[in-house]
């Protein structure tokens, strides 16, 4: 009888006893700041207060992609790609948390990329410190909590920066193609982020890149610029949207510095001092590009360019430059590393405990900065941080108004913003002034009928609710448009105020027709 001999396979035992691989320092430098940013961004994310800009984003849940395409031919072309993205995100279940969640994820990705840059360009602890400092900056926290594109733009610009560093280190056509794609996608999220190309040109100058690198970068930059031309053409015809912007001066420049380095004076002073050290420090570099060559142009060149251009054509607003902020924590972390290296043997020690102590010490300093700026973070999540409360007004209307009630908005379109953001709360009302919907005209808000038509329609109305913007509720306010003047004239002449309720960003007034004499 044959006996089968079965040999023990050592592989499973080897697999059981093999030690688990620990995350690398670079991985931790990227993931820890991303996790901290996600946690801070999720804090208070479910607040009900939605302000006007967020309300516009919320509208995109209720419009089809063709309707969004129609909209951007008339207004907000600069946000067209973002609106299309948010339509996909919001369409299944519109709400405040889902409205802001992409911004939280964008901010977390940006913080992780800051950490990755610092780790790759100097060492992991520099990346960790820079990423954490980015995460706790209140300016980052504000736009991580807002349903607009700016946090995603910052993530895109930093992804393009990481791609640039990789392409300079190991030039290859596919790397430059990826770089051009990232710059293009980011610029389509917000047109002014194309200024990141100016920062990257500064990086190549500081790195003294050879002509072969310059030639590849110029080809990628030209491809991105050409791909952006349709957006430029559309947005130039919509420049009146920025007519409210003024010419920036020293006050705006100082405000931008405070936003980048921390709004509290103590934190700002320490961060700027570390930045100065980081600019001057001689740190080891891993490859042809140094951290200073990346961070300094990123923090300085786009803001300087936008401030200069805005002296002739006002385009400046601090949130447009959120993608540049990353340069400040990178330089500050480099400055901290430069100070550490002044201690004899600190950068050559192989003691795990000593290195862990240094990492923890830097993280502790960032924690102190966060504690000092905690009131700023709490303010950003409070009711006074945003100028409007469209959700509050929509809730008030849903409780006070009955299906079939006649409604007027004063002034239009400003008082219509809550109805546009929360159409379900106004869906069963009789909008007596309505001429054409915003969907049909490719505008953000509905169009109202002429004054004579509205006056004729109101003859058959005995009871009407007036939704009033807070500015119009102030004593002495006078309307500018003919239709708004007709509303007030008819209400004062033919109706009596019976009730008034205040809530959110507006006032509800119930008018009833005067009894016949």
Structure write-up:
- Strand 6 and strand 7 (507-513) form a beta hairpin.
- Helix content is 59%, strand content 6%.
- The chain is elongated and about 95 Å long.
- It contains 23 helices and 7 strands.
- It is α/β, with parallel strands linked by helices and 517 residues long.
- The longest helix is centred in the N-terminal third of the chain and has 26 residues, at 96-121.
Average pLDDT, to the nearest integer? 90
Overall 3D geometry?
elongated
Q: Describe the biggest sheet?
A: 5 strands, mixed
Total helix count? 23
- N-to-C CA distance: 122 Å
Structural class: alpha/beta
Roughly what percent helix?
A: 55-70%
According to DSSP, the number of beta strands is 7
Order of helices and strands: HHHHHHHHHHHHHHHHHHHEHEEHEHEHEE
Radius of gyration: 28 Å
For this structure, the quaternary state is: single chain
Q: pLDDT below 50 for ≥5 consecutive residues: which ranges?
A: 1-11
In the sheet with the most strands, the strands line up as 2-1-5-7-6
**What fraction strand?**
5-15%
């Amino acid at each position: 009888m044959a006996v089968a001999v079965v040999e023990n396979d050592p592989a499973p035992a080897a697999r059981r006893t093999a030690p688990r691989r620990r995350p690398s320092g670079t991985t931790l430098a990227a993931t820890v700041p991303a996790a901290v940013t996600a946690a801070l961004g999720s804090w208070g994310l479910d607040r009900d207060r939605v302000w006007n800009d967020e309300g516009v984003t919320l509208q995109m849940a209720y419009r089809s992609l063709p309707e969004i395409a129609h909209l951007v031919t008339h207004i907000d072309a600069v946000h067209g790609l973002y609106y299309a993205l948010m339509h996909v995100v919001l369409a299944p279940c519109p709400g405040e948390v889902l409205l802001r969640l992409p911004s939280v994820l964008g901010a977390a990705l940006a913080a992780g990329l800051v950490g990755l840059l610092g780790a790759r360009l100097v060492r992991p602890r520099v990346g960790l410190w820079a990423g954490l400092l980015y995460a706790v900056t209140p300016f980052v926290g504000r736009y991580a909590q807002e349903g607009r594109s700016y946090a995603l733009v910052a993530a895109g610009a930093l992804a393009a920066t990481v791609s640039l560093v990789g392409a300079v280190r190991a030039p290859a056509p596919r790397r430059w193609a990826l770089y051009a794609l990232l710059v293009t996608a980011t610029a389509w999220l917000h047109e002014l982020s194309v200024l990141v190309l100016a920062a990257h040109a500064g990086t190549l100058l500081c790195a003294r890149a050879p002509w072969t690198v310059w030639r590849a970068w110029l080809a990628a930059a030209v491809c991105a610029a050409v791909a952006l031309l349709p957006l430029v053409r559309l947005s130039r015809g919509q420049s009146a949207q920025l007519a409210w912007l003024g010419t920036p001066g020293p006050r705006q420049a100082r405000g931008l510095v405070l936003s980048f380095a921390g709004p509290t004076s103590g934190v700002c002073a320490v961060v700027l001092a570390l930045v100065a050290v980081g600019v001057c420090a001689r740190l080891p570099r891993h490859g042809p590009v140094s951290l200073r060559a990346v961070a300094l142009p990123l923090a300085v060149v786009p803001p300087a360019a936008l401030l200069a251009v805005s002296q002739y054509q006002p385009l400046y607003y601090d949130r447009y430059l959120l993608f540049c902020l990353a340069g400040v924590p990178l330089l500050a972390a480099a400055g901290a590393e430069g100070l550490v290296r002044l201690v004899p043997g600190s950068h050559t020690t192989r003691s795990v405990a000593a290195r862990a102590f240094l990492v923890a010490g830097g993280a502790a300093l960032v924690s102190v900065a966060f504690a000092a700026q905690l009131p700023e973070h709490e303010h950003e999540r409070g009711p006074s941080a945003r100028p409007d409360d469209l959700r509050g007004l929509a809730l008030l209307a849903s409780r006070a108004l009955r299906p079939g009630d006649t409604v007027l908005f004063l002034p239009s379109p400003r008082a219509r913003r809550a109805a546009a953001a929360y159409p379900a709360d106004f869906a069963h009302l009789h909008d007596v002034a309505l001429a054409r919907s915003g969907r049909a005209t490719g505008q953000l808000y509905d169009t109202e009928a002429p004054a004579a038509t509205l006056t004729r329609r109101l003859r058959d109305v005995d009871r009407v609710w007036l939704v009033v913007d807070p500015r119009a509720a102030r004593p002495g306010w006078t309307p500018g448009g003919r239709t708004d003047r007709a509303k007030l004239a008819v209400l004062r002449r033919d109706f009596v105020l019976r009730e008034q309720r205040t809530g959110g960003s507006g006032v509800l007034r119930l008018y009833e027709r005067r009894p016949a004499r």
